[in-house]
Specification:
Length: 340
């Protein structure tokens, strides 16, 4: 049995880490066949739109993709491919597991939390206009439907993963209507359907302080789009950085796109310095997802083999420079493959 998936190498460090990840997947015998499609600057360079219809169509068909990071110009230029992809495919739930790894020394041990981010609304709606010269309004959108959808999804996910607590980060003291709506929905879903899972509410500023004081007290964090974007990177910093933080985006119609939390890292692109682990861990999430969806034990075993191999490499000090090691992107992939 093998599954077809789209692969988007992306921009900057994207092609390097994608190649390293695909090599490890092949060496591990992952039951995956990838079909490569462009997006981002890579698509523009081929004379295509930044998010080609053919790429969207392929993901809609296979309902599965592994995606490298795509560059978005700052303060002008084209709109984000990443946001476009999430909106066009209605990938409303972003899941970012954050856990301590043996061999990656950080201030805290035993961090094991998951950030769930609503992926389609909030300030990411990109609705901005200049009201009069010198005055810009950026609209933060919240709908009852999307707030209810992500709350249901998060509680279902928590139940499935046998997690005990969801903490909602919000700013409903100031944004009484918008953030108030997401908070109300989380409370309602908790009360009506999932009273056995604890619900905690924290105003996001205090929540961030508690995160850096003791992240081990958290289990699942649920929040709206922009908060989730920022807090994901904060959480990455707690366990070793962006090189070790994977992610997945899930949609309503069964589409799932797996990508690292980090971006295209133009400062280190093309130098063999990028850590491919966050993308490899995203691929590991894809294998667990396939195992869940299809009851396929071979995908599960493959994911476990990959995890044991990279954990072994890290514990043995075989690491890329972002983690204090000496290895290049390719050498780290080799170190993982040698342990499979
Ligand atoms: P970034 O995540 O690309 O980089 C932040 C810092 O982390 C940089 O110093 C970078 O070298 C380092 N870093 C990131 N990934 C790394 C890895 N795998 N190994 C070693 N070091 C790593 O964030 P930045 O610089 O703010 O954004 C760069 C571009 O990426 C922008 O165009 C942004 O829009 C885009 N981006 C794309 C995302 C996506 O495709 N999902 C997510 C975040 C940003």
């Amino acid at each position: 049995m093998s599954y077809k998936a789209v692969c988007i190498p992306g921009d900057g460090i994207g092609p390097e880490i994608t190649e390293a990840t695909l090599r490890v997947l092949r060496a591990a015998g992952a039951p995956l066949e990838f079909e490569e499609h462009p997006a981002g600057v890579a698509a523009l360079e081929k004379g295509l739109p930044v998010l080609p219809d053919s790429t969207l169509e392929a993901i809609s068909r296979h309902k599965l993709a592994l995606k490298g990071p795509c560059t978005t110009p700052v303060g002008g230029g084209f709109t984000s491919v990443n946001v476009g992809l999430r909106k066009r495919l209605n990938l409303f739930a972003a899941v970012r597991p954050v856990r301590s790894l043996k061999g990656v020394k950080t201030r805290f041990e035993d961090v094991d939390l998951i950030v769930i981010r609503e992926n389609t609304e909030g300030l990411y709606s990109g609705l901005e206009h200049e009201v009069v010269a010198g005055v810009v309004a950026s609209l933060k959108v919240a709908t009852e439907a999307a707030c209810g959808r992500i709350a249901h999804w998060a509680f279902r996910f928590a139940t499935h993963r046998k997690r005990r607590k969801i903490t909602v980060f919000h700013k409903a003291n100031i944004l009484k209507l918008g953030d108030g709506m997401s908070l109300r929905n989380a409370r309602r879903v908790h009360r009506e359907d999932y009273p056995n899972i604890d619900l905690e509410e924290l105003i996001i500023d205090a929540g961030c302080m508690r995160l850096v004081q003791d992240p081990t007290r958290f289990d699942i964090l649920l929040m709206e789009n922009l908060y989730g974007d920022v807090v994901s990177d904060l959480c990455a910093g707690l366990v070793g950085g962006l090189g070790v933080t994977p992610g997945a985006n899930y949609g309503e119609d069964g589409a799932a796109v797996f990508e690292a939390v980090h971006g295209s890292a133009p400062d280190i692109a093309g130098q063999g310095l990028a850590n491919p682990l966050a993308l490899l861990m995203s691929a590991e999430m894809m294998l667990h997802y396939l195992a869940d969806q299809h009851g396929d034990a071979s995908s599960e075993r493959c994911a476990e083999r990959i995890r044991a191999a990279y954990e072994g490499a890290l514990e043995n000090g075989e690491k890329t420079r972002d983690l204090g090691g000496e290895l290049s992107t390719e050498q780290f992939a080799q170190a993982v493959m040698a342990r499979l």
